[in-house]
Sequence to fold (832 residues):
Amino acid sequence: MTQPALDDIELPRRRTRRLRLSAAGVIGAAIVLAAIAVAAFGWAFAPYDAGAVIDTEVFKPVSAAFPLGTDYLGRDMLSRVLLGARYTVGIAGLATLLACGAGVCLGLFAAAIGGWSDAILSRTLDALTSIPSKMLALVLVAGLGSSTPILVLTLAFIYLPGCFRITRALGVNIAAEDFVLAARARGERAGYIMLQEVLPNMVGPILADFGLRFVFVVLLLSSLSFLGLGVQPPNADWGSLVRENISGLSEGAPAVIMPAIAIAVLTIGVNLLIDSLPGRRRERH
Amino acid sequence: MSATVEVSGLRVTAHTEEGGEAVIVDDVGFTIGQGEVMALIGESGSGKTTIALATMGYCRGGCRITGGSVNVFGREILALDRKTLRGLRGRQIAYIAQSAAAAFNPSRSIMAQVIESALIHGTMTAEAARTKARQLFRELALPDPDRIGDRYPHQVSGGQLQRLMAAMALINDPELVIFDEPTTALDVTTQIEVLRAFKAVVRTRKTTGIYVSHDLAVVAQIADRIAVLRHGRLQETGPTGRLVTAPEDSYTRQLIAAATPARRTAGDAPAPAEAAPLLRVEGLLAGFGAARPGALPPITALQDIDLSIRRGRTLGVIGESGSGKSTLARVVAGLLPAARGRILLDGQALPATLQGRNRDQLRRIQIVFQNADTALNPARTVEQIIARPLAFYHGQGDRQRRQRLHRLLDLVRLPAAVADRLPGELSGGQKQRVNLARALAADPELILCDEVTSALDTVVGEAVLDLLTELQRELGVALMFISHDLGVVRSISHEVLVLRQGRTVEAGPTEQVLRAPQAAYTKLLLASVPELRPGWLDERARVVSAA
Fold:
């Protein structure tokens, strides 16, 4: 046996594989962690009862007593934003997780079996996509009544088809690659192939989709609340806070600007984090 | 002879992932005389294309020319501004890329694209350019030169498209033409026509050329001088004849040795003929687009195939692209069910479909795909990749499996440290070894090797061939070795089967078929493989024209 060629024996230098976030990723991670912490424990730090009318003056500017001013009834805005975090982060997070979880499962299933079942599933969900999301949400929430579980399920239902589409398309593409062919030739079952061979290779795009979809859910929840069909008073998510205080916009009251900023910061943070996750930068040779 | 191209001290660096700079071309210098063709030869990553592109003042994204000088026609290319460079490219310096299919715009007619650079540079009127193009088509021996320009890229063959790209490059009578692996993607019988056309054009027009290739035998036909590159450094430069017959550098010698693979199976005694074959294929018919399982497929890929492989022996399957050779492997593996015919493993009929075969039948036949980049799951570590068939077929305990994994890595000559690496962190040759180890993990009796060395550099491919022969000797495994490369098939096979358009052209013991071919197509194939000596192409042209 001759010696194998030198290039063939020397191992190339190993690339670092531990999680290394970029600066933007660190900022995103900090924002997301902060948002989750606020959603979970924010009420403990609220200076006042979020539902109580504290001051006679409405739309108060920023002051030491009211760090974010007061709202249209004279309630403390900081306490209300802290309370709203629970609804916005919680409902949107849950709904997105549900939508993506179910979408990925159905998408993989459709990609794995193909044929008629795939066609029926795909066309049904395509039909759902063709209904404007806001209208569908309005009809569902109006019909079923607004409560937190209904909101979560409605939002998840609306964003499921998009996630299904992406997963199915990725699944069909990856399933045509040689390593999947090799697994099929080995005699592997469809379940193993989909979960072990295909799924790990679509983590990146699916995470990116998760980030995007989370933003959509937050915005749709905000607009539902804005229309009065979202979280019901006296509780409020950040979207309802904007609506409640919309009359203060002409005065430039912090009560309407602060929750809007909170929404923007959260959505940007989620995307900064997800864009810098290692799976997003899967290298191809 | 005055030099038209003078490169000295050329240095190109590239950004690395870690943010540093890696030197990819270092201190390279050579001169090319007027009307001379200089070949840059080396394996992938040797910097040959980078150097060729630098003579146009171009470098790929992420790369930078950081030193040296490139003097073309008395002008310092690296000092020119973008506008002057743009005027030079396509007019005085032209480039012919490896894949013509990717270089042509599919939605415009060929003629429009061939004369485009004449119109851009305003060197001639559209009518004059079209006349010139037709003349070039004739010189390049293209069929129907007056009308081929009206067609679209998908309406001509790969070899024709490559020649049309040469016409595109030559339309402005450039003084320097860069050929970047222009025949690598072509079949041998096509390659030779294209080579001959290139050579004739270069000769009559006295074009100065840079010919980039990894194939010494091809280069020996067309180049006056050869520069051998490795890891971005020049190893040796010299006139073609001298370099091929009396190489001075050890790496050049290694390349030349790898270009003519030694016979690996010569010493083996012929197997007893009465031994029952391990695999027997009878009257096989397979194709694509069948309406239902078992129906005759509208597109036939394989027809009337009979073959047999005995234990511990290798059957080489030779064919050009579209001959059905890869389909044959897939049918035997069960990935594509045969429509007609029988596949017998050890005398027992194998079900045509994967679902019909039991786990043991699946285990005994393993398939290894051509491209290890796509055949290994990029998201799983080497250990996971190899351990899966161990668990799937043998279901041993963790400890046993780990031991077996290390044995397998040892068998394919990989260090144990690769176990927790991802495929993306290995070199091409190493990936192909992992690919093999995964097949071996099943403990197969037959391995179907589909072009396993085609994507590898010659020297690395040679090492993989050595490995295969050694494994066969140690484990007694039978191989079906599929390749378009006659030299490789000859080197490793006991028997060969020549396929053309899905049918068997010729079959028999390797030496018998390749030394005294009976079928005209086998003869043509054999005569088309370039030999590593200058002048072979001209001699062959005389033989063919005399015949």
